[in-house]
Fold:
Amino acid sequence: MTDPTTSLAPASRALDALASVIAEFNADRPLESSIIRGLTALQHSLDARECSLWLQTAEGLVRTWVAGEPEALEAAVTSALADDAEAGGVSAVSVTSSGRRIGALVVRLGRDADRDDGKLFTAVANLLAPELVHAERSRQLEVEVAARTAEIDRERRFTEKIIDSLPLGLYVIDREYRIQAWNRKRETGMLGVSRDEALGRTIFDILHRQPFEMLRREFDEVFATGRIQEYQMESHSSGDPRTYRVTKIPMRLGDSAVTHVITIGEDVTDWREGQQRYAQAEKLAAIGTLAAGVMHEINNPLATIAACGDGLGYRLEDLQKQGAAVNKDLFDYIEIIENEVVRCKQIVDQLLDFSRPKQLAKSPVDLNEVVEKTLFLMKHHSGFRKMALVKELDATLPVVPRGNAEQLVQVLMALIINATDATGGHGTITLRTRTGTTPTDGAIVEVSDTGHGIARAELSKIFEPFYTTKAPGTGTGLGLAICYGIVQDHRGRIEVDSVVGKGSTFRVLLPTIEW
Structure:
């Protein structure tokens, strides 16, 4: 006769296991913790090797939570679910919701599972179903949140990369004047303040060199009016004078008042110099056009004056031959008239050369050869012979494909003579050729001197006709104007750098491409 306690043992064991699992789920714990603890209670109650909960995914069943040793294979689990029986020592029960399998409860026992075990597994699976639904939704939400967070992080880093790549200094302050953004250009600029050091501090702590009241007034005006403020400022922080365009832009979070101010600083020195060169070119072109018309009209009265001077000279000579007493001063006056007429005609010719450079034939030109030829012609110049000469010629200098060597020699001679005059005949002249950075300025020749230099206020005028820094009567002020016209006719440009008391460098840049 069978012992009744023996027949009740499996049923009692199953009830105890179910009670322990229910107790874990009834405890006030997070869902993940409840599932793990419920599986652990089931494992201990059954003395099982593994109790695990698997999720049904598009790729198949995936073990997600486990108590014990995770050794069950997906193939065995799938087989056990299909046959509704043990497969390879694995018992598996589907966890379903609304008629759809959402996972599986898997148990590996050290013995054969009986009918009561099967009932227990089904009861626990039914108990886990709503929890698994919640877990699945939570995981989906977590995945979506993680994906969205990652996307936002990527967008943030991409935006930061864009801002850091701008060739502009940019920072943002809030209404407390505290820095909320500081791009890489601000880190590597003149101040060299790192982002970590700048963020959170007031702008007055960082830009302490600028007047506090002026800086605060600028920001307050943007906060109050909501209008963009733009202005230019000069700085000598880097040693050389630089021009910066500073723009303060209002920023709003929502439809409220201005909450932040974006400040952008841009180095516009090169742009400003380009604008000045363009304006200079336009002015010189206008002067040239005017000069051409005026000089054409002046040539006629000059010819009349010269003819009258000659006539007076012949008349005085006739009177003298007839025995009349002629004052010697009259001949001197006529000679002065003739000499001054000649000088005026030379000025007229130079002006016409400036306004309408002669369209001479152009062919490939080696600037090094132009330098050598110029020095050969200059060796007889009395002032130049006293100068110390430094010659630095680039042997790899590309050829200027379209140039006129005689005109370029004329340009270099004028620059060398100016350098000689600037040093008083006692200094150093450096002639240098080098390759440019782009084909449009591929060949460069420089004439540097150690003379008195040119004041910054005069630099924009030195290429204007009749403007000269030399003493009255020692120059017409047309030499550099003519050089400017010749270089422009070669599709090049001429630049000058000068420091008062240290000297000047005139730089001729010519294209090494066909035009």
User: Anything to note?
Assistant: The chain is about 50% helix and 20% strand. The CA atoms of residues 244 and 426 lie 39 Å apart. The mean pLDDT is 82. The chain has four domains: 4-143, 166-267, 272-355, 363-510.
